[in-house]
Every structure is written in C-alpha cells, then in structure tokens.
Amino acid sequence: MNIQYIEDLAAGQRYGSGRLTVAPERIKAFAAEFDPQPFHLDEAAARDTLFRGLAASGWHTAALTMRLLVDGEFRPAGGIVGAGFEELRWPRPVRPGDELHIESEILEVRISKSRPDQGVVKVRTTTFNQADEPVQVFTGNLIVQCRPAAAAQAEAS
Description:
Layout: E1 14-16, E2 20-21, H1 24-34, H2 38-41, H3 43-47, H4 58-71, E3 81-89, E4 99-111, E5 118-128, E6 134-145, H5 149-156
C-alpha cells in the first residue's frame, strides 16, 4: 500500500491488519522482563487471581498492537509517530493462543498552524481477538507529514 500523506486522510477512513498469534512463552518472557506479576508469569498462580488464568500484560498487548500497526494497511507519511494518547483501555485480557488483529479509524485530520509541512491525525485503534472481541482500545494523535510541495505540484498538473 502507498504512503498516505495528511492530504490523503479523512475522518471515517478505516485500515486493517494481518493477524498475530500470542504464544504463552512470549507472554511469560515479556512479563519476566517488564511486568513480573503472577498472572502474567505462571498458569497455576494466575488461576487464583482476578484473571483466572494466564493473561498478557496490557503493555505486551500494546507492543503487539504496535507491531500490527507497523505491518498493517495504515501507512502515514513519516511513520507512525505518536504525539500522545487521549484514551487507552483493555476491556478484556489477552490469553495464550489468542489471534489478534486491529482496525484503525481516522477520527479527525488537521494541518498544523505552526508547522504547515505536517499535521495531526486523531486515530482510534481497536485490537481484537479471534472472536472479534476488543482487547485494547486507544485513541491517539499521530504526526503525519504533508505531501511535499514538488509532488503536490506534479499531481496538480
């Protein structure tokens, strides 16, 4: 898919991704390094917690979502460069064997007044499991480059 400059983007556009399967050993490895809590590290210990079984860290889910974004259909000019989040939530846990995919929806597009070569795109990205149940939802603001002046002039002629 082609790179999308800010001029190519409009509210309501949707972009998808491929799929990624979550292996239990990856859940444990991520948790061991970054979020070492029993419900992320050990099946037996996890059974006696709120999660009632092994669950991926929310931060692991966020990292998996980033991978799906980078490999997905949404290709903003300049890369996926975040300028902050307005919302981040995990409505249900990610479990071993879950197959994740994402859908990103453009909510708002605006050219920067102070930097006319770029703008801000508000995007809601929902990560789904194999049953199409949301496991993560975030609304973020991305910095997206404008089409270079030379390319814009060539397209106009």
